[in-house]
Amino acid sequence: MPGTGSVRLLDDDVDFALAAYRRDGRWHLDDLAETALESVETLAGAVRRFDSGEGALGLVGVDEDFFVIVRVEGHTTRVLLSDVTAAEEWELAESAVDFLGLPDPVDDDDVGPAGDLAIVADLGMHAVDMAVLVDDVELYPDEMISDIAARLGFGADFDEATGLDAP
Fold it and tell me: Cross-referenced InterPro entries, in alphabetical order (predicted)?
């Protein structure tokens, strides 16, 4: 958002940007274009094309700093931002805060998630488990999403796509 000091995402800032979706009972992953990462709305629009009726997820990790999960099911969009304070520096995170109708964070706000901790509860990861995971300051965003992906059933594919499986 102009004038707020937020940084627009560049290719170098994006650790991963993937769509995860189920089709014929199997998980699939596809890369998302950089143009989809301008805002929660553009991300949801890009992910919506993968929704086969079982919902689709947009998984984005930025600068080893935070992640955003966007889940679309039909016209419904749900969002989870791993660190609300990222909105002070990154447009995508600021867009998530705006989408959620939250006030802009201030310098003394604590690091913490914003949005729907139950975003994938029906798929196998409950809100309490999600809260514990995103509160672990020792983990990087890709490690957190890897854990989520493993619980949902596509962990090995996520790790391969992001290079986490490399020795």
Answer: tRNA_Adeno_NH3ase_assoc_put (IPR023869)
